[in-house]
Amino acid sequence: PRGRLPARCAWFLQELPSFLVPALLLALRSPPRLEPLGCRLLCCLFCWHYFYRTFIYPFFTRGRPFPLQLLFFGMLFCIYNGFLQGYYLIYCAEYPNDWCTDIRFTSGLLLFLLGMGINIHSDLLLRQLRKPGEVTYKIPQGGLFTYISGANYFGEIVEWFGFAIATWSLPAFAFALFTLCCIGPRAYHHHRYYLKTFTDYPKSRKALIPFVF
């Protein structure tokens, strides 16, 4: 217990750098450089996700206490990634004035919004499984959980690949690939856990990708 923090506090501290670091980079840039409109929108997408993850999601989560070691490494990653994505968009990115109408931006934006919607909705379904004070696992139902065990993970992967397509940048694609490699296996292990733990777990469900895996 001495090496852990409550889940809400841990989530807040872990995700905060991903929102705060780009905001500080923008505040320290004189004059601010977020032109054209496409560049401002891309930066807003990144900060929007982490505003939700930092200031909204932690206050509804009911997870177990979080190990300080994992929190430390999570914060390190969020500091680095927040700096990488923010620095690229604020100091390095060059987009044409009509980037907002480019097929890469529009398709990536749609994927980002779709993934974020899936992620938020799946988190809501998971929270509704537990009563206040409960931390035990139950079989998730509804939404994409009808087809896959890791609907929340699937939504976040789609979200960041959409962001990568919209920015069309190496830092964003690296982050999307890291997200896939990090939480993809978690979805697979959750799926195996559900199958072993619940005898009535739907056998037709896949781990991460509907109808495939």
TrEMBL record:
It catalyses: a 3-oxo-5alpha-steroid + NADP(+) = a 3-oxo-Delta(4)-steroid + NADPH + H(+); 17beta-hydroxy-5alpha-androstan-3-one + NADP(+) = testosterone + NADPH + H(+); 5alpha-pregnane-3,20-dione + NADP(+) = progesterone + NADPH + H(+). Its EC number is 1.3.1.22. Keywords: Differentiation, Endoplasmic reticulum, Lipid metabolism, Membrane, Microsome, NADP, Oxidoreductase, Sexual differentiation, Transmembrane, Transmembrane helix. One of its GO terms (molecular function) is 3-oxo-5-alpha-steroid 4-dehydrogenase (NADP+) activity. InterPro entries: 3-oxo-5-alpha-steroid_4-DH, 3-oxo-5_a-steroid_4-DH_C, SRD5A/TECR. Residues 65-213 form the 3-oxo-5-alpha-steroid 4-dehydrogenase C-terminal domain. It comes from the Eukaryota. Pfam families: Steroid_dh (PF02544). One of its GO terms (biological process) is sex differentiation. The chain crosses the membrane at residues 12-29, 41-60, 66-91, 103-122, 160-183. PROSITE patterns: S5A_REDUCTASE. It is a multi-pass membrane protein. The keyword Aminoacyl-tRNA synthetase does not apply. Belongs to the steroid 5-alpha reductase family. Converts testosterone (T) into 5-alpha-dihydrotestosterone (DHT) and progesterone or corticosterone into their corresponding 5-alpha-3-oxosteroids. It plays a central role in sexual differentiation and androgen physiology. This is 3-oxo-5-alpha-steroid 4-dehydrogenase 2. It comes from Hippolais icterina (icterine warbler). The lineage of its organism: Eukaryota, Metazoa, Chordata, Craniata, Vertebrata.
